[in-house]
Amino acid sequence: MNDYPGERLGLPASGPRSIARVGRRIGALAIDYFAATVIAIGFLGYDQFALPADAGWRQFAPMMVFAVLQILFIPTAGGSPGHRILGMRVVRFGGGWVGLWRPLVRTLLLVVVIPAVIWDADQRGLHDKLAGTVLIRS
User: Fold this and answer.
1) Count of C-beta atoms within a 10 Å radius of residue 62
2) Rounded CA gap, 82 and 116, in Å?
3) pLDDT reading at 53 higher than 80
């Protein structure tokens, strides 16, 4: 039995390099999706009040922008804007640079939602496990 999330991974119980907790994760998700929606409204003609039949591909514009933000910012800034604002970063399990494919796999699974809400005892989502990443506090 683990005393705290991240113990099996060799991470501290709290403070820097500890597993990012649920509240921070949800806050970062809200910040990122809000930013993606603003960008989609401003640059892609997204109209949140349009009926799906009228919206066409634009109904998916915020999700597409969200995915692009994740894929671009994780390997370059260590996390999405929401992660960084709330003091978190995505790191490769075992150390080293996350590379390019890990953020892509992680984001595709995050967009599907289900893998992101299935966690292990270390509060590590299935999307992180399959991508070989860990979301930690900075």
Assistant:
1) 21
2) 16
3) no
